[in-house]
Design a protein that fits this description.
Elements lengths: L2 H17 L2 E5 L10 E5 L6 H8 L4 E6 L7 H8 L3 E3 L6 H12 L3 E4 L17 H9 L3 E7 L16 E6 L5 H4 L6 H17 L18
Length: about 220
């Protein structure tokens, strides 16, 4: 971790100590101590990155919507945390190249395959960019499920109604493990994007759109 990131790591823990009842982390052993990895998570709160910064013991470089890099204070903060901009709704080659560069250096990338925050807590359809990134980098995909974050930092007095936040980290997966060989090539990318979200769904309770991976099928 860089000096700035280490500071944010401990600051996040202090904030969660104040604003939550407790934070439960399951599956932390699935985060490799070294080497490239793509961390994919559901997205239910603007503060989701702080959860991973505080409780994953690796420097995670987040793909962050370009609107956050506006020259203001938050731009300064997230840039020093290693975040880099991605233009949503288009093929952002600059962001893609930056992600590939970091993965080639053995770093961890954090992204939200849904592309935007869910306002209903439930999972949305994944974008295909994560599939291309995993294919070109060869990095494993690590699913992460977060619950409770949608009730944190709501502006209420912190000592009342503090939620419990749970972070569940799944086993690393490769595209080869998720692929279905009898599918036409034209459908493989969409199928893989769906299966990546299925890995996240398998870690979530039903109220958050959770389901067993074996129950999902591609049509």
């Amino acid at each position: 971790m860089s000096r700035f990131y280490r500071f944010y790591h401990y600051l996040a823990k202090v904030l969660f100590f104040i604003f939550t009842r407790r934070v439960i982390v399951r599956g932390s052993q699935h985060i490799p101590k070294h080497g490239a990895a793509i961390l994919v998570s559901n997205h239910i709160s603007y503060s989701d990155p702080a959860t991973i910064i505080g409780y994953v013991k690796r420097h995670v470089y987040f793909m962050t919507k370009a609107e956050m890099f506006d020259g203001g204070f938050m731009d300064w903060v997230i840039t020093r945390a290693g975040a880099f901009p991605v233009r949503r709704g288009e093929a952002d080659r600059t962001a893609f190249r930056r992600a590939l560069q970091l993965l080639s250096q053995g770093q961890c990338i954090g992204l939200y395959p849904e592309g935007t925050r869910s306002t209903t807590r439930t999972l949305q359809q994944a974008r295909a960019g994560v599939v291309l990134l995993a294919k070109q980098s060869g990095a494993p995909i690590i699913p992460i499920a977060i619950t409770g974050m949608e009730r944190v930092f709501l502006g209420k007095f912190p000592w009342f109604g503090r939620p419990t936040v749970t972070i569940t980290i799944g086993e690393p997966q490769t595209l080869e493990q998720l692929a279905q060989s009898n599918l036409p090539i034209a459908h493989q990318r969409d199928y893989l994007a769906e299966q990546i979200m299925a890995q996240v769904a398998a870690l979530l309770p039903q109220a958050y759109g959770g389901t067993n991976v074996s129950q999902l099928s591609y049509e």
